[in-house]
Design goal:
Blueprint: E1 5-7, E2 15-17, H1 20-51, E3 66-70, H2 71-85, E4 89-94, H3 96-104, E5 117-122, E6 140-142, E7 153-156, E8 160-166, E9 175-179, H4 182-197, E10 200-201
Parallel strand pairs: 4-5, 5-6
Antiparallel strand pairs: 1-2, 3-9, 4-7, 6-10, 7-8, 8-9
Length: about 200
């Protein structure tokens, strides 16, 4: 099977060994072809291996975090961080007092010249709608009066949320929870969209 012996088709079959020099040449070339075949297999296997997804090449799962914030300073710092880094859409739902605090803290200014999308659901009355004078009114809606005024939360890019457990309406120091939990952010986004659909635009 090495190719160094020839045979005849006559009967009985006669086997003849090839000359030593030719036998060596056949064996050497046979090994060369085997090596070439292995090289071709190596290239194919390498491509196949590269196409197999690995844990390193897959998007790493983001670790879900929760952070409790106490007092205006901590909360305002987190809101600033969120407004400065949002890329897609920023959503806010809050009472009249919540929006007045955002207005006097200059947080609404970030939406005046921003190219990113934003939508605001507000419990503001006609007396305080002036705080939206520099903003696109189509992005602002008034909450239905049935909505209790202690509800306040902020959503950033569908991946971060700031939820007030005690907002501006509370006589106590404000408390808020920040999280990047997908399930919690998604739940609050559904709530926002539902309330947005059932709310009316704020007119000039």
């Amino acid at each position: 099977n090495k190719g160094i012996v020839s045979a005849t088709f006559q009967h009985p079959i006669q086997f003849t060994a090839l000359p030593l020099e030719k036998s060596i040449w056949i064996l050497v070339n046979s090994e060369k072809e085997r090596v070439k075949s292995l090289e071709r297999m190596e290239q194919g296997l390498s491509k196949l291996w590269d196409n197999i997804p690995t844990f390193d090449s897959m998007h790493p799962e983001v670790e879900e975090k929760f952070q409790m914030l106490q007092g205006s300073n901590q909360i305002h710092s987190k809101i600033t961080e969120m407004t400065d880094s949002h890329n897609d859409e920023f959503l806010i739902l809050g009472s009249e007092k919540d929006y007045l605090k955002l207005y006097h803290g200059d947080f609404l200014e970030s939406f005046v010249k921003s190219k990113q999308k934003f939508r605001l659901l507000s419990g503001c009355t006609d007396k305080t709608t002036y705080i939206f004078d520099d903003l696109e009114r189509k992005n602002i809606k008034k909450l239905h009066t049935d909505v209790e005024n202690h509800l306040c939360f902020i959503l950033k890019d569908d991946n971060e949320m700031l939820f007030f457990t005690k907002n501006a309406v509370s006589p106590d120091e404000p408390y808020a929870m920040w999280t990047n939990s997908n399930s919690m952010v998604y739940a609050m986004k559904l709530l926002f969209e539902s309330m947005w659909t059932n709310s009316k635009n704020i007119h000039l």
